[in-house]
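User: My advisor asked me to double-check a structure prediction for Abasic site processing protein before group meeting. I don't want to rely on an old file, so could you generate it fresh from this sequence?
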Amino acid sequence: MCNKYANSLNQNLMREYFRVMREHDRLGNAEPLPAIWPKYEAPVVRLTPEGDRELVRMHWGFLTPQVSKKTGKPIKPAAWNNARDDKLRSAPLWKDSFRQRRCLIPASAFCETKGRNPAVDVWFGVVQERNPSPFAFAGIWRQGQPGINGEDGDWLTHTMVTTVANDLVKPVHPLRMPVILDPEDYETWLAGGDDAAFALLKPYPPDRMFVLKGD
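Assistant: Sure, here is a fresh prediction for Abasic site processing protein from the sequence you gave:
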């Protein structure tokens, strides 16, 4: 699973790369984000009701209520920041968003953690012509968080879809990696039918990725 990613892209590049008209940029002044964690806000590309692409801010992770096992009282909600591809069409938390609210998650790198004591953060990038190289994760989103009270309950949230790890990621995280989409597949993911979109959920070719750094 992925618990940290980066979006160090400037705003003009995001609009150009993801084909978002300036009037549909809702970010305000967006600063580069070298590290994004669950519950943090980050740019997301989604479709308007009219079918135009727009850039908006969303918190990372669908929220669900939690209670303390000791006291039975509510505690901070869980943030579900990864959605497994094999659960996407059946799990109640994901299936409606997959059918109705798919999005692109702009990124320049993502992180997987290897080992313990000490744990090492390994960052992965996608081979492209620009530096930083823009790419997009397959994402889904929703408005409002059922069962969550207060300001958090009104959040716009997104989560990224994960699939089996490719041969580059597997030595660091042997099971899962985020779904990275090819640019020619962005429109299918955003607006295509369920079957066509689901067919895009596969590991990204390892020869088109590289290890960016390890901390």
